Amino acid sequence: MDKGLPIAPEAIGNYVTYKKVGKYVYTSGHVPITEEKKFIGKIPADVSTDEGYAAAKLCAELTIATIRKHGSIENLQPINVIGFVNANEGFTDHAKVLNGFTDKLSEFFSEKSTRSAVGVASLPLNVCVEVQCVFIHE
To answer: Could you say which of 42, 53, 58, 103 is the most buried, measured as most Cβ atoms within 10 Å of its Cβ?
Structure first.
């Protein structure tokens, strides 16, 4: 495991955090919670956009930790990222928050993915962001 990566999270319900199907790897939505950090609340009322960026970055670190727990990231590239931002009504900087996730991915992978940044009224555990991904083995 890489120095600096958090411990991969365990599923908290009836699902898995990692699924390999053929050449594809799917990760469940990862949320910005570890034993040391918790990013809770709505952006920007409770969590600033910059803190949201850090939360999304943590989601990427947890996603990479999950993949590494099940194998290697060698020859793996991200295809699609879907990020959900727990935002106050009128918030429009969802992309700035999700840049934390894709910026962190770019430190590990040579290719960029497609991405959606979606604002929502709430998320599980009242986290400020949740991100799921699809990767491909090349």
So the answer is: 58
